[in-house]
Design goal:
Layout: H1 10-16, H2 24-54, H3 70-79, H4 89-107, H5 118-124, H6 140-145
Helix pairs in contact: 2-3, 2-4
Length: 147
């Protein structure tokens, strides 16, 4: 689900986890999981942007995310360990936008401000896409594996 929505609302979570009996505690836990997923995502983006700068990359146009790059492998291994899901192209686009946002902010020296990442978060939260209907099924994993 994270490949589609980095910022799911509690209503969205309830829609896609229909087999879960929601209460305040469970809703909070699921929201916390997504927060942790985002934290890992943003840590990787900053790490790879800084590494590119250290490697001498000077232009944002040289920053890309493809299925054969190390950043993609790190994210896929974290969110899709068993490689059960095909990562949507849109996720690669969003990852590239995120990487470029970090790169531009660091090059511009914005990282001296303690709240420098907030501007990036505001951009990325608008890039969530529709989660496919199949994810609403309690048998989602089995259905996806048999496609």
């Amino acid at each position: 689900m994270f490949f589609y929505a980095r910022y799911p609302s509690s209503n969205m979570l309830k829609m896609f986890f229909s087999d879960v009996k929601f209460n305040r505690c469970i809703t909070s836990q699921l929201i916390k999981w997504f927060s942790n997923f985002r934290e890992f995502y943003y840590i990787q983006m900053e790490k790879f942007a800084r590494q590119a700068i250290n490697d001498g990359v000077t232009g944002v146009e040289d920053m890309s995310v493809s299925r054969d790059c190390e950043l993609y492998r790190a994210l896929n291994m974290h969110y899709n360990k068993a490689n059960d899901f095909e990562v949507p192209e849109r996720f690669l686009e969003v990852a590239q936008i995120t990487l470029r946002e970090f790169f531009n902010a660091i090059v511009a020296g914005k990282d001296v401000d303690p709240s420098w990442k907030k501007a990036i978060y505001k951009v990325i939260c608008k890039l969530d896409s529709e989660v496919p209907e199949i994810f609403k099924s309690p048998n989602c994993l089995q259905e996806l594996l048999h496609e």
